[in-house]
Amino acid sequence: MSTSSPRRANAEPRWLRLTLTAVALGFLGLFLALPLVAVFTEALRSGWDNYLTALADREALAAIRLTVFIAVFVLPFNIAVGVAAAWAIAKFDFRGKSLLITLIDLPFAVSPVVVGLVFLMIFGAQGLLGPWLSAHEIKVVFALPGMILVTLFITFPFVARELIPLMQAQGKDEEEAAISLGATGWQMFFRVTLPNIKWGLLYGVILANARAMGEFGAVSVVSGHIRGETNTLPLHVEILYNEYNAVGSFAAASVLALLALVTLVAKTLVEWRMRRETEMLAATLAPEATGTSTGNRS
Amino acid sequence: MSIEISGVTKRFGSFTALDNIHLDIPTGELVALLGPSGCGKTTLLRIIAGMESADAGHVKFAGEEATHLHARERKVGFVFQHYALFRHMTVFENVAFGLRVKPRAERPSETEIRRRVSELLKLVQLDWLAERYPSQLSGGQRQRIALARALAVEPKVLLLDEPFGALDTKVRKELRRWLRRLHDEMHISSVFVTHDQEEALEVADRVVVMNHGKIEQIGSPDEVYSNPASPFVYQFLGNVNVFHSRVHGDWAEIGREEAQTRDAGNVVAFVRPHDIEIENAPVAGGLESLVQEVHTIGPLVRVELAHGPELVEVELTRERAATLTLGKGQRVWLRPRQVKVFEASAWDLEDGGSGI
Q1: Which helix (H) or strand (E) holds B229?
Q2: Are A177 and B178 in contact (CB < 8 Å)?
Q3: pLDDT tens digit string along B47-73?
Q4: What CATH architecture is B3-234?
Q5: What ipTM does the predicted assembly reach?
């Protein structure tokens, strides 16, 4: 290198910076942007009319409805249990706390297909609870309840994972203050705790929702693939694709891709709000300027 | 409302935070719990507040059993070291919180709440901040709002956990005088926790000095300072020079009256740096020493001297230092004005404990 221009001691050479940036951007384009573009190009290949017809298909609509229904059903449970678990972990000390934290992470660690198989083994006809369930004519596997159960399992960690560090960082001073001021447990929760964690909670819910709607493996095992009945959107995409119905499958996939984009936007907004609130809290305070007035009264 | 604490013990695992504490706090008194970190003072305060439960012992409010009363029902005002203001509420809503969460039958009307809150904000002289959020306030302002919030429910007891610990010196001084005045105006019992001896001595009616989960001494600020019950209290309340009489036979001489009753080899003598006089000429019983360092700290001059292998710290007024014209390596004679002698065994027990 014969450059004579001075360069900062801590900066990498220009060519290295450019190469690294190019590699990173190329990777992003190839693996993230290109597939997204491909989904929409394939879906719209034979025009808007065909695209809309494919989406208006009775089975496609049923798949969308089922997907939304499962998500709507699963999320309240996730919120309730996630908040409860995060609360217990962040605000109390008890035996087995680290075990609980590990258990919460379990759904992240296990392959979704295995999850589906496990639920089959428990609730299936040959499973542990199978005889009892069939005796009472309760259908879990290859039906809606099974799909809801596995989705619950898969999406369980998101809310709790998001809230635990947040609640730990906030400590329990404010809750204790609320109690000492005479608040009941519920008043404390709704007036103090919930407003403090709302953005973190929303963030967790957005992630859980994306996962609930996009889940394939576990749901696939317990759904039974009954068209128009137990097909969620991801399963519907696969079926159509296997039938060489490119427009149909990509149209359905584009709905999922749109959902992903909406999730990203929502996630960014929430992250921005969260960061702003943290910054507000951490903002360096102006030096005490309140009066010496406190000193003169007697 | 008076507070009686009897036989309170608290353990965290194998660590004994409080060991059989007995303490009576009469109505209207401002009491400081003073001690190094980890001495159990905050735990005691939290047990009084009901935020922690004692393993053994009783807490009584105005003679009535309160040991198992829920924190919500104790009617105590609690002020946290880090303010614990509700961050998503305005200052006004923070102060109003205690009134808004009252059961419907007891809850004051909206206009009454407005009146009470603005009254309290005037009391802490921050009524102009009502619509701000806690994050927009300075530390001193936050703590005053926290106080107003605690007072909103008209507690009979006010508990403060290192209330000024996170503030800078100037604000801290201002606030503690203000707290003293507020306490006198409100006619309540207050207990505050601090590790700052100056704060305790200046503000409190009574000081409770704690160490290792035990109470070392209870007394007026003057009592604990000038008549410490134990070596720990002595060295915790201000700087101190410690002389082991075995090494310093002549120092035991000086404290003769007190030392006589004990075996001369087994005592330690405590002398405060400002209780030592420096003389340029030899005096009877004076300790010959060499000046090591001279620092001027504001109105005081701190002199470090070597007496044999021991380092002695002396504090003089500027005027006195000027007449002595002390220089490095100068030979001088030390004369203590006031010595406190303890048995060496009592000191050894505390040795290594935090202090100077």
Answers
A1: none
A2: no
A3: 999 999 999 999 999 888 888 888 888
A4: 3-Layer(aba) Sandwich (3.40)
A5: 0.80
